[in-house]
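Journal club side-thread
Mid-discussion, someone asked how the predicted structure for our own chain would compare to the paper's figures. Pasting it here so we can look after the session.
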Amino acid sequence: MTRFGGAREDGERGVVLIIVAISLVVLIGMMSIAIDGSYGFVQVRRAQNASDFAAFAAAQQLNSSYYCNGTTAPTTRQLVDIVKVVVKANDPSLGSAWSAQYLDRSGATMPDPNNPAQNLGFGPGSTGLPPQGACGVNILATPSWPPFFAGIFGYHQLGGRAKASVAPKTTHTSSIGIVALNKVGPHEILGGGTGQFVVAGDIFLNTDVQHQPWSGSFTDPTTNVNWTWDDAIDAKSNSNLYVYGTIHSNNSTDNGQSLWPLDNCFQPHIEGNGNPANPTPAYQSGDPDPNVVGGLPQVQMNCQEHTGSVNVDFDNIDPTQVQIDDPLLSTGAPPDPLNANTNIACPGSTLQTNPAMTTDPNTQVTELSPGDYTTPVEITGAANFQDCPGGYTGIYRFDQGLWINPQGSTDTVTGTNVVIATQNPYPLAGNVPGTVVGGTFAASGGGNGAPCLPPSTMSSAASGNGTPMAETTNSPATACGGTNPPANGVIGYGDSTFSADPLETGTGNNFSLIVGGVAGSSVSLTGPVNSAYGGTDGNPGLVLYQDPNTAANYGFDAESSDAADIAINGVVYNASLSHYGADAPLDYWDGTGGGVPFYAGGTLQAGYGAGWSAGPAPSAGSVTLTGTAIVDDFNTDGGTRITIIGKPYSLPGASTLSLIG
């Protein structure tokens, strides 16, 4: 008999060794997963913390920078140093194992302008300047570490990825055409002259006017609610005002009656959505041009109280608006380009004072450079406002006023990606008081916002309660110094009666910015899409800015015979009315009942010629604002066609940084 026990025992011992070996491999694998995995999780977590904090730190610098929402100008090297410091404080082992990309205000990576297929990025050794519009960063960290047990399996280095994206969070709003901030006066929006005034977008009226001679009362027959017509918005002199949107008016009261923003001439015509008891939400998307038959806003109102016929048409009126303050003076608003502490120099350069204006001998176009202009500037031919090299926003300061006045029928004045800031009124006879010394006009102060006209100028019948009236007297006491031919200030009428006020006559329009020119000439100015002054959703932002501490108006085609075609793309800002209290100037001109207020500041005046039957040549041409006007009052005159295409109003500055990835 043969015995096989020893062989079986040897075989069993071999099987056990295999099982033990396999078990050890599994055990080591489990230990590798447990220990190396846990250690790796810690490494990635530390790298993630480093990425998050570094992205926030770098984005904070960009968000307050010239490139995005502020005025500082950090270099890429400075951002690299910030990232290095934060990374070292949170994950010293990460070292230079990171890369970054610039993000725009929407959080999208920015393409390299030299190679659009590639994203614009930087790393530990990068230099140069961030691109225009850089508001945030995306940081990718790639940590690595030696394993404890994984080396047994041939893995001698392990790694991971950590990513953080930080960019501003913006607020979207509806399309807004005009924000009128005057708190006390009537005629915040006044359509005058004979041209059309078209607004595609909402209008915000801020006034709770208590003093004016046109107010009237009515009782809504449906609700028995009493209303006061406060004349916050009006049209006269055969003009037509079309509002494709909602007119938001103040919810305050006068003598216990709620305010309704129209002239009481429209009182018999309340109907449909014009009924205060039936406000409906409002903007009618796709409203056609008013020249197209059937293309008018929902509610049409006509006033034939005077000789002429005027129309105020709108989609809706909402009289529940709470009175607001100047949004550009609020915390987080874009920096004041006229403030001495605001850096307006091009990135990498020093501030240019009175930069040389060069004219190309071939094109005859005058090139202006960003900087601080300390003397009055008049442009009489073709010109271009340049932005900064590299596509950065060009900021212009005109301390003593700017007059864009092309005199050639083919002259064009352009400027893209620019902010034009003005301060004092332009020293022009008839615009401000003064005298001629040695053949040169010298200003002696500011105008009071009412014009100087030839003594023969007569008001229109529609403006003067049916009877043309002299706009001026020929008294030496009301002469406007320096005017040639001689002109006199217009006659003022009191704010509580229609009687003439001998203590108030016109002394000048007080324009700090005059934009006009001859027929055939054109002016096109566009604000930045990015930088501290950029708009939202890719729309141009702040393009014209008047110092809120210096009372001065804007004038578009606001000189006699102006007929330029003017296009402004972006946000226009002039809230420089010196005070809003009960003692604010509330006299008027343009004959008995004419109703053009005396305002030395805060008015955007488009057009010239308040419908007068005799006088200097009125304006023609067109003014188109694609954006939002933030002013105290918006007046139109002459035969100029004014079109405002409202855009979502949301200037950056109030945005907050948000971790988006």
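Post-session note: The two ends are 79 Å apart (CA to CA).
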